[in-house]
């Protein structure tokens, strides 16, 4: 039986650790960490995510500010909002929820966020620091995966790590993190993507497989080496009449058959997903305590 890497439990543990630290800070009369989230428009998924982030702040004892802007807000007005939060000394962390409406440049907005407050780890400065293995805010999903590997004491040194997908927020940073001279890290990394030839043959050689391709149940048992560690970043809703809400969630990995071959695997739901909010809270705490930019 494989080890089921339980992101729900691990995320709860991290949130409790952060809550305990906030209590200490408050008892010592220190500054309570404060996260600001900017939400543009009425995208349902974004509203749900931001709502969950605000609730998580309350749970650990952080302060939070939610700035809601209309769908048709100008780029200039959004940039001004970011600048105001940048300059507000009470706010430690700033996130602008993505995606943004088409008339707004994500690059311009991201570049405007002060790296010291960029707890999403999306700014060029913080991505660069990650690549250099300097203190930084690592983006929520990669940080969540790193933390799961650490807390489940997965050996990564000298292993062949195959990453499927090269997105800026998951595949690309994971390939950098797994190759760096650190733990988790020191893996030999192959970053695969839509132009990769012989994908199946490459994936079959993975000791650690990180799947962020965004295709439901893409990875099947015949693609996986016996004893591999499998991290599934995908999440998809599929219709299921037998469920009360009419759907169920599946990942990029065909869980039942792949788990039978793996030594450890993240489930969907309850694997990587719940870790992302814990990562954001952790980065906000780092910022409040000036651990990244002293
Ligand atoms: N949209 C989807 N994931 C994220 C995230 O981690 N941060 C922000 N700001 N927006 C997102």
UniProtKB/TrEMBL annotation:
CDD domains: NAD_bind_m-THF_DH_Cyclohyd. Residues 140-291 form the Tetrahydrofolate dehydrogenase/cyclohydrolase NAD(P)-binding domain. NADP(+) binds at residues 165-167, 235. Residues 5-120 form the Tetrahydrofolate dehydrogenase/cyclohydrolase catalytic domain. The keyword Nuclease does not apply. PROSITE patterns: THF_DHG_CYH_2. Pathway: One-carbon metabolism; tetrahydrofolate interconversion. GO terms for biological process: L-histidine biosynthetic process; methionine biosynthetic process; purine nucleotide biosynthetic process; tetrahydrofolate interconversion. Signal peptide: none annotated. Keywords: Amino-acid biosynthesis, Histidine biosynthesis, Hydrolase, Methionine biosynthesis, Multifunctional enzyme, NADP, One-carbon metabolism, Oxidoreductase, Purine biosynthesis. GO terms for cellular component: cytosol. Transmembrane segments: none annotated. Its EC number is 1.5.1.5, 3.5.4.9. Pfam families: THF_DHG_CYH, THF_DHG_CYH_C. It catalyses: (6R)-5,10-methenyltetrahydrofolate + H2O = (6R)-10-formyltetrahydrofolate + H(+); (6R)-5,10-methylene-5,6,7,8-tetrahydrofolate + NADP(+) = (6R)-5,10-methenyltetrahydrofolate + NADPH. GO terms for molecular function: methenyltetrahydrofolate cyclohydrolase activity; methylenetetrahydrofolate dehydrogenase (NADP+) activity. It comes from the Bacteria. Homodimer. Catalyzes the oxidation of 5,10-methylenetetrahydrofolate to 5,10-methenyltetrahydrofolate and then the hydrolysis of 5,10-methenyltetrahydrofolate to 10-formyltetrahydrofolate. Belongs to the tetrahydrofolate dehydrogenase/cyclohydrolase family. This is Bifunctional protein FolD. The gene is folD.
């Amino acid at each position: 039986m494989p080890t089921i890497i339980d992101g729900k439990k691990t995320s709860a543990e991290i949130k409790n650790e952060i809550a305990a630290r906030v209590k200490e800070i408050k008892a010592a009369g220190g500054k309570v960490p404060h996260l600001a989230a900017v939400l543009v428009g009425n995208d349902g998924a974004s509203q749900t995510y931001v709502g969950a982030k605000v609730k998580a702040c309350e749970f650990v004892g952080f302060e939070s500010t939610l700035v809601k802007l209309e769908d048709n807000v100008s780029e200039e007005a959004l940039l001004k909002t970011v600048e105001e939060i940048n300059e507000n000394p009470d706010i430690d962390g700033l996130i602008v929820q993505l995606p943004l409406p088409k008339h707004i440049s994500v690059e311009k907005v991201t570049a405007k966020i002060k790296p010291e407050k960029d707890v999403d780890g999306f700014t060029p400065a913080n991505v660069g620091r990650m690549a250099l293995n300097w203190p930084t805010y690592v983006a929520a999903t990669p940080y969540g995966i790193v933390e799961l590997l650490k807390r489940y004491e997965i050996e990564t040194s000298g292993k062949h790590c195959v990453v499927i997908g090269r997105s800026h927020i998951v595949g690309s940073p994971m390939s950098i993190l797994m190759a760096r001279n650190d733990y988790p890290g020191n893996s030999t990394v192959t970053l695969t993507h839509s132009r990769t030839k012989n994908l199946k043959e490459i994936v079959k050689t993975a000791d650690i497989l990180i799947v962020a391709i965004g295709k439901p149940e893409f990875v099947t048992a015949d693609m996986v080496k016996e004893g591999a560690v499998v991290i599934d970043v995908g999440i998809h809703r599929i219709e299921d009449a037998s469920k009360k809400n009419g759907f169920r969630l599946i990942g990029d990995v065909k869980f039942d058959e792949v788990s039978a071959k793996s030594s450890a695997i993240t489930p969907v739901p309850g694997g990587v997903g719940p870790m992302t909010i814990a990562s954001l809270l952790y980065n906000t705490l780092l910022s409040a305590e000036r651990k990244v930019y002293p």
